[in-house]
UniProtKB/TrEMBL annotation:
Protein name per its UniProtKB record: Regulatory protein, luxR family
PROSITE patterns per record: HTH_LUXR_2
One Gene Ontology MF term: DNA binding
CDD domains on file: LuxR_C_like (cd06170)
Record's keyword terms, sorted: DNA-binding, Transcription, Transcription regulation
Length: 98
């Protein structure tokens, strides 16, 4: 192994590394960020990359503009985003997120 350029790590070091860093890894049952969103929040999120205004999104989804504003705020909060620009990145469809 070492001759081919790989590093050799003693088993004791490996165990210490795993025991040190394993508690900081996300749990396997941690939901994906999109799973935290309601269906309607996902609907609004999917409209953001299309650069539609709140009024346009509201008309398209048959909800009020104020409701769109609330959903956009919740999406940003749940996904830890700063603004609509960050939220406008392409997201997988709801069927692809889980």
């Amino acid at each position: 192994m070492v001759a081919s350029g790989d590093a050799a790590v003693a088993p004791g070091v490996t165990r210490r590394l795993i025991s040190e860093f394993a508690p900081h890894l996300p749990a396997s049952d941690t939901p994906a960020p999109l799973d935290e969103l309601t269906t309607r929040e996902r609907d609004v999120l999917m409209e953001l990359p299309r650069a539609r205004s709140n009024a346009e999104i509201a008309a398209r989804l048959h909800i009020s503009e104020a409701t769109v504003t609330v959903h956009v705020g919740r999406v940003l909060g749940k996904l830890g985003l700063r603004d609509r620009g960050e939220a406008a990145q392409p997201w997988p469809s709801a069927s692809q997120s889980g």
